[in-house]
Specification:
Elements (H helix, E strand, L loop, with lengths): L1 H10 L6 H22 L2 H15 L8 H7 L8 H48 L6 E3 H9 L23 H6 E4 H9 L4 H16 L8 H10 L10 H4 L4 H12 L9 E2 L1 H15 L4 H6 L5 H11 L24 H7 L3 H11 L1
Antiparallel strand pairs: 1-2, 2-3
Helix pairs in contact: 3-4, 5-8, 5-9, 13-17
């Protein structure tokens, strides 16, 4: 019995150890992997990469060498052409998306600006219920803040609270803002804080009684509560302040439209005459003294006045028509250059004022 068992056992193949099985499998996998590398062109790719690194790479330890090379390697890849096509399409779509996003932003900006313009139109119609074509800056301030006379002083105390650019009554009376300019100025106010205040102003105008300035009651109450009446009104400017958003709005309107270089219209004939006289006094000589021959030379007075006045203040002057040399035959170009400020023109203004 045992002899038969031993004979059968001898006929069986010798048992292979687990280590040998694992090694055979590893060799088979390695052979299959090598075949895969050859079939897919990977070996050729690696050879070219080594050639590339030997020829072009100065930094042997470049960590991005493999990825940089493989990113542009297409030899032997049957899908390379399709990949390039898809990459081009993707780049085109990304560029198109960028253009569309830009157009969306532009449209959003235009919509927001149109909303602000509509808001400005609504504010104008309530500030100017009689459909005036334009108003002066002085009228604008009055329609916002009022001009109520305080009984104990007999004065319009709100005028003491005017912003700096609104304190020159002659200037703000002469400077006018049209409905078109007003709407454009409001349309250009992009700050959300200013837009919120404009919406609040519009609501105030809707709630105000006909003909009453939206800030009149508030300011008059603040003036009364200051306890400075009737003798210490000179301290009101420090004790009572206008809403900072209201001041900012008034300043922006006074600055004018951005697309017109910040210019508003002036009633220039009265403005030029009046301010020539005032500024001549400011430099130590009134207009009559200039005309009669004061010890200060006329050209010196002209230079000082020219230094104090912004160039655009005389652009539409009814006397000198923007100071053209040809307007006054007795004031030649040479004389004007010598005097520095067209003093003959100044002298003609001085004669009219005197």
């Amino acid at each position: 019995m045992s002899t038969s068992w031993d004979a059968d056992q001898e006929r069986l193949p010798q048992m292979i150890s687990s280590e040998d099985v694992a090694e055979r499998q590893r060799l088979a996998d390695l052979k299959q992997f090598r075949k895969y590398l050859v079939d897919t062109g990977t070996v050729q790719c690696l050879v070219k990469m080594y050639k590339h690194s030997a020829k072009h790479e100065m930094r042997i330890d470049n960590p991005s060498l493999v990825t940089q090379f493989l990113a542009g390697y297409t030899d032997g890849n049957p899908d390379a052409e399709e990949i390039q096509t898809l990459q081009r399409e993707n780049a085109t779509l990304e560029e198109y998306n960028a253009v569309m996003e830009s157009q969306v932003k532009d449209l959003q900006h235009q919509i927001a600006r149109q909303k602000r313009r509509n808001l400005g139109r609504g504010i104008w119609r309530r500030l100017c219920p009689d459909s005036e074509a334009d108003v002066s800056l002085d009228e604008l301030f009055i329609r916002l803040c009022g001009n109520e006379v305080e009984p104990s002083t007999g004065e319009v105390l709100v005028d003491l609270l005017r912003p700096q650019t609104y304190k020159d009554i002659d200037l703000v009376t002469a400077t006018r803002v049209s409905e078109e300019d007003f709407i454009a100025i409001v349309g250009d106010m992009e700050s959300q804080r200013h837009v919120s205040w404009l919406e609040e102003l519009f609501a105030r105008l809707q709630d105000s009684e006909s003909g009453e300035a939206p800030y009149q009651r508030e300011l008059m109450q603040a003036i009364i509560d200051s306890d400075l009446l009737p003798h210490d009104t000179f301290l009101l400017a420090d004790a009572v302040e206008l809403d900072e958003n209201l001041v900012a709005f008034l300043e922006v309107v006074a600055a004018g439209r951005k697309d017109k270089g910040g210019k508003l219209s002036h009633t220039s004939a009265r403005y030029c005459h009046k301010h020539f006289h005032d500024i001549a006094i400011g430099v130590g000589r009134d207009a009559k003294a200039c005309h009669l021959g004061d010890p200060m030379p006329m050209h010196e007075v002209s230079k000082r006045i020219h230094a104090l006045l912004a160039p655009n203040l005389f652009e539409e002057c009814a006397v000198c028509r923007a100071w053209p040399f040809s307007s006054f035959p007795d004031c030649t170009r040479k004389q004007a250059e010598q005097l520095g400020c067209r003093s003959e023109c100044m002298r003609k203004v001085a004669k009219e004022v005197a």
